[in-house]
Amino acid sequence: MQDFRNVENEFITGIKRVVEDNISNDKFGVSELANEIGMSRSNLLRKVQKLTNLSVSQFIRQIRLENAMEILKQSSVNVSEVAYQVGFSSTSYFIKCFREHYGYPPGEVGKKEQEEIKTAGIKKPGKPIKLVILVSAIIIFGIVYFVMIQPYIVKRQQVRTSIAVLPFRNDSNDSTNVYVINGLMEAVLSNLQKIEDVNVISRTSVEKYRNTEKSIREIRKELNVYYIIEGSGQKIGDEILLNIQLIDAEKDSQLWAEQYRQETKDIFQLQIDVAKNIAEEIKVIITPEEEERINKIPTNNLVAYDYYLKGLDFYNKAGGDLTYAIEYYKKAIEHDPEFAHPYAGIAMCYYYIDLVQIDNVYTDSIAIYADKALSLDPELTQSLTAKALSFLIKGEQQQAIPYFEKALEYNPNSAETLNFLSEFYTNINPNTSKYLEYALKGIQLDITSHDSTMVSYIYLHVSNAFIQSGFVKEAESYINKSLDYNPENIFSHYVKAYILFAKNKDLQHTKEMLIETLQMDTTRLDVLQEVGKICYYMRDYESAYYFYKKFVDAKETYQLSIFPSENAKISIVYAYMGLNEKSEQLLDNYFEYAQNNQSIYKNLSLASYYSVTGNTEKALEHLRLFKNEDNYFYWLTLFLEMEPLMDHIKDHPEFKKINKELIDKFWDYHAEIRTSLKEKKLI
């Protein structure tokens, strides 16, 4: 009888071969693989999960990344070309996945090989693969949880001004004029994005429908829009023929259609007329400032504009070579040195080229071209974005923000700008209210440009941002969306457990949910300590010790420094179990952590330490200092009063007074955030 392990190995090898046969097809996913091997989707999911501990989409992505690594090692192909060869339609997403999988960007592959050669023969003690994966997962989640940039996050309730401009169709047999039709689509999209009263889906999200066979109703459901614009056109000699129709996506019925036939020299007026006619049909308000920006003619030189459109076409192509875009942009500048768009375009191309290289080569060039674009047109979104990127490439994020915010003011529907701002207010300068505002708006423009696994994480992050600000109902809604997209997302499972605690205050139910989550993967130290923590809050110290001991033993065995903020809680549990020496060691470690804590919670950490050591005066002193902080998380209002670390001072009148002030202050801030989000129609 054949060994079952050989059968399993043959199965994995077989489906890996199928994926590699379709490696360049970015549309080849779970359903396509299931059809190819003649297995139901559910059976495929279960079997791959069992054999590899990966979801099928993760398995496919891993194969793509492994093939990419081999190509990068064996050839001098650039990163964009490699991304295209292994089935990534977005170079930036390829870079992100590659970095998460290998720990460094694809541009550093050659450098890493040299480092490996230099260190050949040097052996280091190994660690069990599962633990390494776990630690990596915790680190990645820490980054993703507070950093993510694509974020991006959550379709809001459909509004009557949401609109998608589908890629225009070229009606001409002359494919060389496609860039003109693409340019018209881009210009109409750009003009509509300048109107704050319209919610315009990003170009990256609509690009997938360029050659689609999906119905209008299917597209509407995926994009969550009320209106869809379809267009087709051709350039005939010196004339442009453009057909536009506005569709009620829910009813799949035409609301308005127009055929435009204008001379090429009137192309800008054509773009303006189309945008204004659409705005009029959907009854949105265009402010005088917005109308002025829409009416602005970028250049009077049509040859320069033609070269700019050719460059823009290369810039927008997934996996396209940005050096071609730069070449055309420079030709545009030759014909019109006062044309701001190509200067900004060159700066942005150089930024993205440098982003995938080991060393920044174009830092000075980015600044020069960005400054020139800004001097020519200080209200152009691309000029402001280019200037912001010139600061980002130098690591000067704070200086970039005013330019991003001004760019968003002039183009309220810029998904790229919203993504940069979301990242800034989660990672560099945490601000929950601003993160929520930018992330919520960003996702409704750009969510469909991500795969299901990434969407699951995006919804997870927005859910987390909501619950941190006390929005329990909204947080529950979005964590459920996260799990709908990826039921195996363990992070979402344990965040949901805490969201439901905020809703029902049932610690026993929270404990049961966390134990169920732990059973999904018993090697997850992050979940292990969460179960121990809930038992600790229940003052079930024996159960807490059971989970905490496993957590502490693993940390010490593999010399991990994760979750230092939990050491004080664990110290109390160990003291209860009579392990006083170990308890004191943990408490000393916690005190060192508290002293070096640079977050807003430093004084709260020190107050906890002095409380548990019986120093009431010092504990209250640090609690008073913490009271002056803003933007702290909802969890504090839920757990501070039940916190065993505070037992020594919680009956003190000043503790009760400060705790009430913290709760009142939190809900006042929550009300401000709610009002702001409602005014902006984000909730």
Give the overall silhouette.
globular
List segments where confidence is low: pLDDT < 50 over at least 5 consecutive residues: 1-7, 116-130, 132-159
β-strand percent reads: 5-15%
- Report the radius of gyration as a whole number of Å: 28 Å
The figure for the number of domains is 4
**In angstroms, what separates the terminal alpha carbons?**
61 Å
Biggest pleated-sheet summary: 6 strands, mixed
The secondary-structure class comes to: mainly alpha
Q: Output the CATH topology of the largest domain.
A: Serine Threonine Protein Phosphatase 5, Tetratricopeptide repeat
Q: Per CATH, which architecture of the largest domain?
A: Alpha Horseshoe
Q: Helix count?
A: 33
* CATH top level assignment of the largest domain: Mainly Alpha
| Mean residue pLDDT | 83
Number of DSSP-assigned strands: 6
Query: CATH homologous superfamily name of the largest domain?
Result: Tetratricopeptide repeat domain
Helix content bin: 55-70%
